[in-house]
Amino acid sequence: MDKFKQILKQYWGYNDFRPLQGDIIQSIASGNDTLGLMPTGGGKSLTFQVPGMVLDGICIVITPLIALMKDQVANLSRRGIKALAIHSGMQSKEVSIAFDNALFGGYKFLYISPERAASPFFRERVTQLNISILAIDEAHCISQWGYDFRPSYLKLAELREIIPHVPVLALTATATPQVVDDIQDKLRFSRKNLFQKSFERSNVIYVVRHSEKKEEQLLNMLNAIPGSAIVYARNRKQTKEIAQMLLQQGISADYFHAGLDHDLRDERQKRWTLNQTRVMVATNAFGMGIDKPDVRLVVHMQAPDSLEAYFQEAGRAGRDSLKAYAVLLWSPNDKTNLNRQVSTAFPELDTVRRVYEALGNFFQIAVGSGSGTIHDFNMAAFCHNYHLSISNTLSSLRILERAGYLEFTEDINLPSRIIFLLQRDELYKFQVANADLDAFIKLLLRSYTGLFTEYAAIDENLMAQRTASSFDTIYQYLKRLNQARVIHYIPRRKGPQITYSQPREDLRHLTFSKAIYADRLNIYRQQVDSVILYATTTHTCRSRLLLHYFVEKNTTDCGRCDVCIDKKKTGLPDSQFKSIQQSIRQLLTQTPLTYPDLVHALNIPSPDVEKVIRWLEDVDLIITNANNQLEWLE
Predict the structure, then answer these.
(1) pLDDT in tens, 166-211
(2) Whose C-alpha in 311, 371, 540, 604 is 20 to 30 A from the C-alpha of 75?
(3) DSSP percent split of the chain into helix, strand, coil, nearest 5
(4) How far apart are CA 382 and CA 392, in angstroms?
(5) From edge to edge, which strands make up the β-sheet containing 487-490?
(6) Which residues are CB-neighbours of 509 under 8 A, at least 6 positions away?
(7) pTM for the predicted model, two decimal places
(8) Which domains are seen in the chain, by residue range?
């Protein structure tokens, strides 16, 4: 392990690995297919980045998150490590040049989206690479039992036929045992090989607060718990409203969602990371890839639709191992909203077909054509033109994506890029012949590096500032050079995109298998029910309930969640309380008893029994029936 620790110290500044990191690295470096199950904040990326630096060749990293992909490439580059990315939104020429650089440029990491990895172009050229590791992040996406199943992941197993001797490292933060087995089966592991860290976060205190006045509860918590915080809200409008309310109360806050300009999101995230902003109010678009260890409080104003998602988002609290809180605010309306969300997430198939048909007309794609085409997607205009709701359209797109008809990228934000098409001697001749463009070409060469070998991201506004000109002036210069084939200029693209995975189908041939619709609907229903159970249970320790969901056995009460604190209010030691509760349960599940008969049967001092019974009645585990007998309900 010495060589791995040396790389860890040299590039990341750490003296040793966290628990499980070293074991996973040793396994994958030995050529073994490996599944690493590590909670959010456990340091998953280092398990492929460190061995990727030591082993000969290039590590291919598959991830569905473009923003995370770009962040990791940027972070590696800042450490002096050569990395590049290929993802949806890139043009074919960009992809080809990026692949050439991966082949000949001495790069150690190639990040690629699952859709690109499944493309014929990638499969044709991947055999030319000397690959050290095939790392698959968010590996739960390959399992139909997972909470974020993506059909593009299923095609990754076919890469094993093309590069059979490359070991696979699959990584995920949350997975039930069924998903764990499914991942290894779908990825064709030569043998089962799981490294799993307990999901237990002993420093995180889980709390559910039942309240109709959620904003009042939020203020109380922020005033009681100092330090950095994340507040998750249902939608974009609510993030802004809550942030403004906090500011009016003198609490430093800002809001974040996918609809904001990319630069603005970066600026807000940076200010929060540096503790210049205390509270970030956000949709679930916030948090992926953020490494901020000192978050003391994560509050959910509404419950997510799965415990996997909740556990991952709540897990952003207390990554420094110090005490932190994860609080879910719950009201009776939340149960209604979650149940309604099931029908929203799975609209009738007639609605899905209608959306598919409208898409083809919207993009003017003929039946039998369009395969591989990429389209910028104005959802507001689409829904207005075809009288569709945004929620039904969004859900229909997800179903069509799972069925393999198209790919939907909700938040694409790619900066403008250029590459010089002329070599230096040819460029010099062009500058001499076109004196009016000479100064601008020199500005490009001074401002950006590597322009002759790879596409470079450029900022037209920044160049306009440097030249005391306008964005339009810079744009016109770039457009002229592009038309003269001196450069290839790709203007900035932002907003949703839709890619047709196959030719447009005649509506009569549009099919949705049981696994795509009915089975997924059933899984989603179970996930929502699990969230409702977590929020409404008043007699099981929150931490134990979460751990049981991930089928961790032999757990103990945390002693610090709201349920455990309520138990402590009886004044009885925890072990004594549990013993009395268990004895009462054993007796009352056999037959209802009057209070005197129960006390007599238990042979325990009646004041202690009364305290436990009162608590059991409060949490609706026992009732007094019409015969004045105590009856166990569960």
Answers:
(1) 999 999 988 888 899 999 999 999 999 999 888 888 899 999 999 9
(2) 311
(3) 50, 15, 35
(4) 12
(5) 456-458, 416-420, 487-490
(6) none
(7) 0.77
(8) 2-196 (3.40.50.300), 204-331 (3.40.50.300), 347-414+495-516 (1.10.10), 416-491 (1.10.10), 569-632 (1.10.10)
